[in-house]
Each structure stands twice: as structure tokens, then as C-alpha cells.
Design a protein that fits this description.
Helix content is 40%, strand content 13%. It is an alpha/beta fold. It has one domain: Rossmann fold. It has a three-stranded parallel sheet with strand order 1-2-3, sandwiched between helices. It binds S-adenosylmethionine (SAM). The site of S-adenosylmethionine (SAM) has 16 residues, from helix 3 and strand 2. This is rRNA methyltransferase 2, mitochondrial. It holds the Pfam family FtsJ.
């Protein structure tokens, strides 16, 4: 919302397009200009609430069958937004400045992305 009380353009656009915050447009612009996230990328979002960047990151991964993973961490509990996100997005409630060493590896996108393959391997 703008300081004057009336919702600003980006606030209204976020509502209209199903983004949980207008910050989505910052990452959309970065993505349009630099294409940081490509098909199948691994993305770690430090301080992810309320999840707008999770939405843009997840939709930037391309088709589900191309893989990729988006992990969001925040001290606040964050529910993965339903719109623009799919099973490749997940969140963790933690203070990124005080993560115990043994949790860091378990939170890495590479490790999380490998889990389905590990499960698949174990089930065969
Ligand atoms: C500006 S918001 C992030 C907005 C988010 N990128 C989005 O677009 O939806 C910054 C977030 O960082 C989180 N944060 C700040 N320090 C943190 C820490 N040490 N560990 C985890 N999260 C932290 C805050 O709780 C806050 O939700």
C-alpha cells in the first residue's frame, strides 16, 4: 500500500495476478533483465516471508519435468503460496544466522533436490 492509504499500482497488480506481495515485481524485473534463474535451477531464498520471491523463483524454473528446487528460509513460518508455486518449493522456519552446522547441508537446494532420487533408488 502507498503511504497515503490508497493501494499503489504494484500492490493492486500483485493482488490481481495472485502474488502474495508486490516484491514479486522486483524479482520479475531482475529475472527479465539478467535471467538468473534458468530451467532446473536450485534457488535458496534467505528471508522468504511472505513468499513472493518463492512464487517468481518457482515459475522461473520452467516445466516440472525439468526439475529444480526453491528453498525459502525465514524466522517466520511461511506457507508455500499455492499460486505460482508447485512441489519444487518448500520452506523452513529458522534463523539463517544461527543454523547449526548439521542443518546447513540438509537445507541446501542440491541436497533437497536429490531426495526424490534417493527415495527412488531406495525403493528399487
Ligand atoms: C523483505 S522480507 C523478504 C521478502 C521476500 N523476499 C518476498 O519477496 O516475499 C525479509 C524477511 O527476512 C526475514 N529475516 C530477517 N532476518 C532473518 C534471519 N536471520 N533468518 C531468517 N529470516 C530472516 C524476515 O523475517 C523477513 O520476513
Amino acid at each position: 500500500m502507498s503511504g497515503a492509504g490508497a493501494p499503489d499500482f504494484f500492490y493492486r497488480e500483485a493482488q490481481r495476478l495472485g502474488y502474495v506481495a508486490r516484491s514479486a515485481f522486483k524479482l520479475l524485473q531482475i529475472q527479465k533483465q539478467y535471467k538468473l534463474i534458468t530451467s532446473g535451477s536450485s534457488v535458496l531464498d534467505l528471508g522468504c516471508a511472505p513468499g513472493a520471491w518463492l512464487q517468481v523463483a518457482c515459475q522461473s524454473l520452467g516445466p516440472l519435468n525439468k526439475g529444480g528446487v526453491v528453498v525459502g528460509i525465514d524466522v517466520k513460518k511461511v506457507k508455500v503460496p499455492q499460486l505460482h508455486c508447485d512441489s519444487r518449493a518448500q520452506t523452513v522456519c529458522a534463523d539463517v544466522m544461527n543454523l547449526p552446522r548439521n542443518r546447513i547441508r540438509a537445507l541446501s537446494p542440491q541436497f533437497l533436490e536429490s531426495l526424490p532420487r534417493i527415495r527412488l533408488y531406495q525403493s528399487n
